[in-house]
Design a protein that fits this description.
The radius of gyration is 17 Å and the shape is globular. By secondary structure, it is α/β, with parallel strands linked by helices. Strand 3, helix 3 (about 70-85) and strand 4 form a beta-alpha-beta unit. The protein has helices at about 20-25, 40-55, 70-85, 110-125, 135-145, 160-170, 190-195, 225-235, 240-255, and strands at about 5-10, 30-35, 55-60, 90-100, 130-135, 155, 175, 200-205. The two termini are about 20 Å apart. Helices cover about 40% and strands about 15% of the residues. It has one domain (about 5-255): Metal-dependent hydrolases (TIM Barrel), CATH 3.20.20. The chain has an eight-stranded parallel β-sheet.
């Protein structure tokens, strides 16, 4: 059985003490490919450096809504630098990008500007996008309808919001499930899992964050992606190996691997 963690953050400082040994262990425990995701200019640089070392690791480059600069000129400058990074063969999408009104209410217009400019960059480079959205469903969908993405992409760690998932699927996007679908207080996880067709599902850890059951409270890492796969297999009444195979193939397809 092979697993593909479609979104983690191996450049995070929480991995500084054991990154090399952990990566070696990851590839000995069933995960055979992963995407280590950038979310700022600096993290995009670090993530690419990691991806260059390991043939099984790919990356995405972008500036998240929680990491944008405080004016248009600075945002444009950073996106130009992302453009250079994103032309490396190991970079397989522009991301993570999007909108987050949970942490930031005061800069919505700048978030939207950065999102739109990075959609344009993805189209220019013929890359998909990886979307972060939190408490910003309406504006996220509005922008995606107004600014068509040529190669679509993924709603990463997709919020378990019925309308968002329906709209995302209608627009041609993939839905990536992470640890929250395993949480005991995740009331509508089963419904959302059943909404997503087999050919649109991905799995991820978003590690070192969002550790799934039964690992909650501990540092998350890509080995734990199996728990998300197990949850989906249980809900869809399918074999775990089948879910692993489906999500592996889907990830390879969307990221052009």
């Amino acid at each position: 059985m092979e697993l593909f963690d479609s979104h983690c953050h191996l450049d995070d400082e929480k991995f500084n003490e054991d990154r090399q040994s952990l990566i070696k262990n990851i590839f000995e425990t069933g995960v055979t490919k992963l995407i280590t995701a950038g979310y700022s200019l600096e993290s995009s640089k670090k993530a690419l450096e990691i991806a260059k070392i390991y043939p099984q690791i790919y990356t995405i480059s972008g500036i998240s809504p929680n990491d944008i600069q405080d004016n248009v000129e600075k945002i444009d400058e950073e996106i130009e630098k992302i453009k250079i990074i994103a032309q490396h063969e190991k970079v397989r999408a522009i991301g993570e990008i999007g909108l987050d009104y949970h942490w930031n209410q005061e800069n919505k217009e700048l978030q939207q500007y950065a999102f739109i400019q990075q959609i344009k960059l993805a189209n220019e480079l013929n890359l998909p996008i990886v979307i972060h959205t939190r408490e910003a469903v309406n504006d996220t969908i509005k922008i995606l309808k107004q600014y068509a993405v040529l190669k679509k992409g993924v709603f990463h760690c997709c919020p378990l919001n019925r309308e968002l998932v329906k709209e995302a699927l209608n627009l041609g996007y993939y839905i990536s499930f992470a640890g929250p679908i395993t949480f005991k207080n995740s009331k509508n996880a089963d419904e959302i899992i059943n909404l997503v067709p087999e050919d649109r599902m991905l799995i991820e850890t978003d590690s070192p964050y969002l550790s799934p059951e039964p690992m909650r409270g501990k540092r998350n890492d890509p080995r734990n992606v199996k728990y998300t796969a197990e949850k989906i297999a249980s809900v869809k009444q399918m074999e775990l190996e089948k879910i692993a195979s489906i999500t592996y193939e889907n990830a390879c397809r969307v990221f052009g691997i």
